[in-house]
């Protein structure tokens, strides 16, 4: 009997997927399993959430939002989707600082797998975490806070099943997004830092041949951004905006939870006929990385839908691809053509890894343990934390064994 698949349908899960209805039921399931792993909304393209044992999803557990206004935090179930979290927080007059392009993904999955949005001053979603509740081997429940969070928060499920997360929140705010058309490549290279500093959150889209296709500038001000180094603003009529049922609204301020993502929570953004890879390059090496990829442009083009360029602020999380320095995130949305995509990845990495690039573990990449750990100075510290939390590798899987080691 065929197993269940991920959103993109590029992988089939090995284990049996269960949906416990409470944290207590989840703890019992973990206690009775010799091999178990957490599963979010299945948006990972790599098998980082797979296991040959039991796979646990938390989509049927009440999120039970608890707000601490004095502390500026909110605690909620890890299975909640980001768009749903945004709406719940808005009812309390609150918001989180950042969102990825998809609001459909679960909070626990985004935190565990280095999911991010874009913005010079905005870090990974995991940087918002102020506390975690985790179910460990045998079903025991423990709290993680303080200095241990730097190692535990972005751990790809290797330390246990995260059931609740405490996040930093702030007063609710509005965002407007202004789209721009083609941006001359020479202007992007010359003004790279200024382009990404032009808004609260900025994305640039390219196919690696010719000029950059378009850009989105998202700002916290009500006034439109009208100039982007020669790129022309894209004006859409109200009818065109209303007819677009997938993309979030442009040209008018709205709640941050609805405007910072590229897609609406009520819409299916695509049918999953794509593959994805992403590499995080130190900002000092961004131009060298762009030049190297442009040299491969003709080869990349056949396999590519589009590449999105975003920026992510530095953090101190042990397994974060932004650990220790600001990065340019180079995200490839590929055609669903693995025969074209997979041979390109080692060639891309030959250019990017020597520049200090780190791959996104939840997407497709070629590098393995020795290459991955070179960019993570706290790798050995995480390995020790994992040994202490899960010595028998109840939460291990073949992917983690390849990347982290047995």
Automatic annotation (TrEMBL):
Entry keyword set: Oxidoreductase
Domain FAD-binding PCMH-type: residue ranges: 9-172
Top-level taxonomic group: Bacteria
InterPro entries linked: ALO_C, FAD-bd_PCMH, FAD-bd_PCMH-like_sf, FAD-bd_PCMH_sub1, FAD-bd_PCMH_sub2, FAD_lactone_oxidase-like, Oxid_FAD_bind_N, Vanillyl_alc_oxidase_C-sub2
Entry protein name: D-arabinono-1,4-lactone oxidase
Organism: Amnibacterium endophyticum
């Amino acid at each position: 009997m065929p197993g269940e698949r991920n959103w993109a349908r590029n992988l089939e899960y090995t284990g049996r997927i269960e949906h416990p209805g409470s944290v207590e039921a989840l703890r019992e399931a973990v206690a009775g399993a010799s091999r178990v792993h957490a599963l979010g909304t299945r948006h990972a393209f790599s098998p980082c959430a797979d296991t040959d044992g039991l796979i646990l999803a938390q989509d049927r557990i009440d999120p039970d939002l608890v707000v601490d206004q004095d502390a500026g935090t909110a605690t909620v179930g890890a299975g909640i989707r980001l768009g749903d979290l945004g709406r719940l927080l808005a009812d309390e007059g609150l918001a989180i600082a950042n969102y990825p392009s998809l609001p459909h993904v679960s909070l626990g999955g985004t935190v565990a797998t280095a999911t991010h949005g874009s913005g010079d001053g905005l870090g990974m979603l995991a940087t918002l975490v102020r506390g975690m509740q985790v179910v460990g081997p045998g079903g025991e429940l423990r709290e993680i806070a303080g200095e241990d969070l730097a190692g535990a928060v972005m751990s790809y499920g290797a330390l246990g099943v995260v059931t609740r997360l405490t996040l930093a929140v702030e007063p609710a705010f509005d965002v407007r997004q202004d789209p721009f058309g083609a941006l001359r490549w020479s202007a992007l290279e010359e003004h790279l830092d200024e382009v990404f500093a032009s808004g609260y959150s900025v994305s640039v889209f390219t196919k690696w041949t010719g000029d950059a296709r378009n850009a989105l500038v998202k700002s916290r001000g009500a006034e439109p951004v009208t100039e982007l180094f020669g790129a022309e603003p894209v004006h859409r009529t109200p009818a065109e905006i209303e007819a677009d049922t997938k993309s979030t609204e442009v040209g008018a301020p709205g709640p941050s939870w609805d405007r910072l993502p590229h897609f609406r929570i009520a819409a299916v953004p695509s049918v999953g006929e794509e593959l994805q890879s992403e590499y995080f390059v130190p900002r000092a090496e961004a131009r060298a990385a762009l030049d190297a990829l442009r040299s491969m442009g003709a080869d990349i083009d056949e396999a590519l839908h589009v590449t999105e360029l975003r920026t992510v602020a530095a953090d101190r999380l042990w397994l974060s691809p932004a650990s220790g320095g600001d990065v340019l995130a180079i995200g490839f949305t590929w055609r669903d053509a693995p025969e074209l995509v997979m041979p390109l990845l080692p060639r891309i990495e030959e250019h990017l890894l020597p520049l200090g690039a780190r791959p996104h573990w939840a997407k497709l990449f070629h590098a393995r343990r020795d290459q991955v750990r070179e960019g993570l100075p706290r790798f050995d510290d995480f390995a020790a934390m994992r040994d202490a939390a899960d010595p028998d590798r109840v939460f291990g899987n073949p992917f983690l064994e390849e990347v982290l080691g047995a």
